[in-house]
Write a structure and sequence with these properties.
The chain is of the alpha+beta class. It has two domains: 9-194, 2,3-Dihydroxybiphenyl 1,2-Dioxygenase, domain 1 (Roll); 199-405, 2,3-Dihydroxybiphenyl 1,2-Dioxygenase, domain 1 (Roll), CATH 3.10.180. The protein has helices at 34-45, 85-93, 107-116, 161-165, 184-194, 214-223, 272-278, 296-305, 316-331, 341-347, 391-405, and strands spanning 3-4, 23-30, 48-53, 62-69, 72-79, 96-103, 128-132, 135-143, 149-157, 175-176, 199-208, 228-233, 244-251, 257-265, 285-293, 350-354, 357-363, 374-381. Strands 1, 11, 12, 13, 14, 15, 16, 17 and 18 form a nine-stranded mixed β-sheet that branches. A nine-stranded mixed β-sheet has the order 7-8-9-6-2-5-4-3-10. The longest helix has 16 residues, at 316-331.
Length: 408
């Protein structure tokens, strides 16, 4: 998983560390039909369908749609031929995350440092620069767990990330979506501007790996990207009567980016991590993205109104949660949860607290027919944890869904 602190201002002066990560530049998805997927994410989650790179702009092998909301940038990529790697991956794994890309000051130097640290270049991942009269983008890509990769991105001129955040073109060959009168894109973008969902940026992004491989990938992030362990949860923390998993959260040196890594643990039945692997061709990959909001109640209400399906919690959860959460807050000198308790219950939101404050969170059901990728919507009121107190209730809700699918 990748966790982000509040979206930073892009730094203008490079440090001496080539692996200093500035931001999550974008998250790239491989999808079967980028145009249709763009309208799904726009309609259900309130994204702007901002730019496109396709046959009309000179791209002969892929169609790419840029979706934006707050400091979130999704690239939805579809192959234009059966031989393209994106087509092969979608056939094997379904729609899902391919690349978690980081903005750096110098992509070539970041790549060289990562390779020196033991990284393996992704196919075609050696540093390459695309430029035009307006500026340039240098990209270099390394492999991580399963089919997932990390790209290092450095930008100049009109393609500087600060300018992209202000609405500039994302890269050469991209163009703004056509939004003439009667355009479907104009209609949905205008609706989303007037009815925002309030999603701000990627809070974290979770990877699922095979049993026994969590520590291998922890060492990878320590050695290659020079991350450190932020938190560790074992099968005593994340377990129900039937299933369990273990998780370690890796963080970049400035704690800007956090990436939890999950592996299944032994249980009476199948954990949700193992279900993911079963339906992902037994290949590790990104299980979910957590998207940060400043107002959980507003965001969840808006998303539910748009038809987003969320996990359902038993009513008994709310019979105990407030005493547990408010005691934790009081014991550490924090104010009680300020959100309306009845609205939290009505919207089915989970609440948890630690010594730094509290958080509110809720998880969607899988975003496509395979039970793989889903989103988490999270609001932090001081807490930098991941809802440890909710693990049992969450996993029981997940198990109910697994049982409905015949996968428990």
């Amino acid at each position: 998983m990748t966790t982000m602190t509040p979206a930073p201002a892009v730094q203008t002066k490079p440090g001496t560390d080539p692996l200093q990560l500035i931001d999550v530049d974008h998250v790239r998805f491989h999808v079967g039909n980028a145009k249709q997927a763009a309208f799904f994410y726009a309609h259900c989650f309130g994204f702007q369908i901002d730019q496109v790179c396709d046959l009309t702009t000179g791209s002969r092998d892929t169609a790419i749609y840029l979706l934006t909301q707050g400091n979130i940038r999704f690239l939805l990529t579809s192959a234009l031929s059966a031989e393209h790697p994106a087509a092969l991956e979608v056939a094997m794994y379904g729609d899902g995350v391919k690349d978690v890309a980081f903005t750096v000051f110098d992509a070539e130097k970041a790549f060289e440092r990562a390779i020196k640290n033991g990284a393996v270049a992704a196919p075609g991942g050696e540093p390459r620069t695309v430029k035009d009269a307006h500026g340039s983008i240098t990209t270099a890509t390394i492999r991580t767990y399963g089919k997932t990769v990390h790209s290092f991105i450095s930008r100049t001129g009109a393609y500087d990330l600060t300018k992209v955040k202000q609405g500039a073109l994302f890269a050469p060959r991209f163009k703004k979506m056509e939004t003439g009168a009667g355009s479907a894109v104009l209609t949905i973008n205008d609706y989303n501007r007037k009815n925002p969902c309030g999603l701000k940026y990627v809070d974290h992004l979770v990877g699922n790996v095979e049993m026994g491989k969590m520590n291998y990938w922890v060492k990878f992030y320590e050695d290659v990207l020079e991350f450190t362990m932020f938190k560790h949860f074992d099968d005593k923390d994340i377990a129900t009567e039937y299933s369990a998993l273990m998780s370690k959260v890796m963080a970049s040196g400035n704690n800007l980016i956090k990436m939890p890594i999950n592996e299944p643990a032994e249980g009476k039945k199948k954990s949700q991590v193992q279900e993911y692997l079963d339906w992902h061709t037994n290949t590790p990959g990104v299980q979910h993205l957590a998207l940060r909001t400043d107002d959980e109640l507003h965001s969840i209400a808006a998303l539910r109104a748009r038809g987003v399906d969320f996990l359902t919690l038993p009513d008994a959860y709310y019979d105990k949660v407030w005493a547990r959460v408010n005691k934790m807050l009081t014991d550490h000198g924090h104010q009680a949860v300020k959100e309306d308790h009845q609205k939290v219950r009505d919207l089915g939101i989970l609440v948890d607290a630690d010594d730094e404050g509290y958080l509110l969170q809720l998880f969607t059901k899988p975003l496509q027919d395979r039970p793989t990728l889903f989103f988490e919507i999270i609001c932090r009121r001081g807490s930098q944890s991941f809802g440890k107190g909710n693990f049992k209730a969450l996993f029981e809700a997940l198990e109910l869904e697994q049982e409905r699918r015949g996968n428990l």
